[in-house]
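Support reply, case 0932

Customer input (verbatim):
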Amino acid sequence: MDIFDKMQDMGPLGKYADDAEGYYVYPNLEGPIGNRMMFRGKEVVMWSVNDYLGLANHPEVRKVDGQAAKDWGMAYPMGSRLMSGNAKQHMDLEQELAEFVQKEAGFLVNFGYQGMVSAIDTLAGRDDVIVYDSESHACILDGMRLHPGQRYVFKHNDMESLEKNLVRAQNYLVNKKKKGGILVISEGVFGMRGDQGRLKEIIALKKDYPFRLLVDDAHGFGTLGEGGRGTGVEQGVQDGIDVYFATFAKSMAGIGAFFASDKRTIRYLKYNMRSQIYAKSLPMPMVVGAQKRLQMLKTMPELKDNLWRNVNNLQNGLKENGFDIGNTNTCVTPVYMKGSVEEATQLVYDLRENYSIFCSVVVYPVVPKGMIILRLIPTANHTQEDIDLTLEAFKGVSAKLKSGAYRQTEKIIKVT
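Our regenerated output:
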C-alpha cells in the first residue's frame, strides 16, 4: 500500500474543500484588522478575529512594531535561545509577564499551540498520569498524543467526574507501582463555549489528592481578572495554579506565548522543552511588540472596560431576543441553533452576502450532528451600531432557519 493512498479520503472537513475553500474555510479577509473588514470586495462587521482589546491595529502598537522591525529586522536574534538566540529583551519580557500574572518566573515560547503540546510532553513522563477536561483545546489533546503514560478524561467542568478520575489515577499509580505523579489540565476559558474552567473547585480538591494543575488561559489573559491578569485572578485562586499558560494571539494581538510558575518549574521547562531548545527564538520585533502591548494592558484599563461594555451589550441583546448563548461567562459568545451542515452553510452565506455579518460557524464533526454554533468574538473596537446590525441579522436568519428556508437546497453553495 502507498502511504499516500489514504489521501483519497480527505477527512470530515476536507471532503468539502472543493465547495467550501476560500469562503467557508480559508476565507480571504482584507484591510486593517478591526470591527469592519473587507471580504470579497465588501465591508462586513467582523466577529471572527480574537483581537479582544483592539490592539492589532492600534496606532501606538503599529508604530512600535514598525520601529522594531526597522531597528532589528525579522531575523535577530539568530538560533535557539539555548545556543545563540537569547537577548535581554526576552528575559525582561519574561519577568514582566510573570509579575503581571503573579508568579515567580516566566518562559517565552514561539507559539501557543506548539508550546502547550511541548510543555505537556515535558511535564509528564512515562510513569505520570494526566487527568484533563473533555473539552480541552486541540493543543492539549495533541499533547496527550505525545504522553507515553496513562491518561484519564473527566466530563467537562464536572467536579464529581474529576474526583472519580483522580481516584483512578491514584489507584493506577499504586497498583502499577509507578513512582510518578498526577497532572490535571484545564482551561481558564473554554474557547468554543465561553465558560470558565472551575479552577476554584479544582484547586480545592488538592487538599484530598496530590496533583499539580496546568491551566491554559489563552482567552482569559487580558480579558478577565483585575487588570486582565486572567481567570485565576478572576476566581481568586491564582496561587493554586502550578503552571499558568497564555498566548499573545488573543488579547495581545501578536505571535508568541508564555508559561509562568515558580522558578524551579520554569527552569525545568527552559532546559527540557524540545520545541524551544531546537527552534529559533522569538524574533525581536515580536518581543518588543509584546512589551508594548503588555504596557498598554497595565496602563490603559479603558481597553478592557470597552471590551466588556460590548460583550454585555451583545450578550444581553442576544438573550433578550431569545437566542441560546449557553453558559458563557466570558467574552466568547456562542449562539446555538439547530440544523444540518448544509443549512449552516446557507445561513452563513446569507449572513455574509445579504446582511454583511462575518462570524465563524462550527458544525459536525466539531459538535454533534444537528447542532450549529455561530461564534462571535466581541472586541473593544466594536460599536453599538455593529451590535444592533448583528442582532437584526441574527433575527432574520434564525427565522429563515426555523421556517425551513435553508433546506431548499441540500448541498453547500459553491462560491466562485
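We compared this against your earlier run and they match. Two observations from our side: The chain has a mean pLDDT of 94. The chain has 15 helices and 14 strands. Please reopen the case if you see a mismatch on your end.
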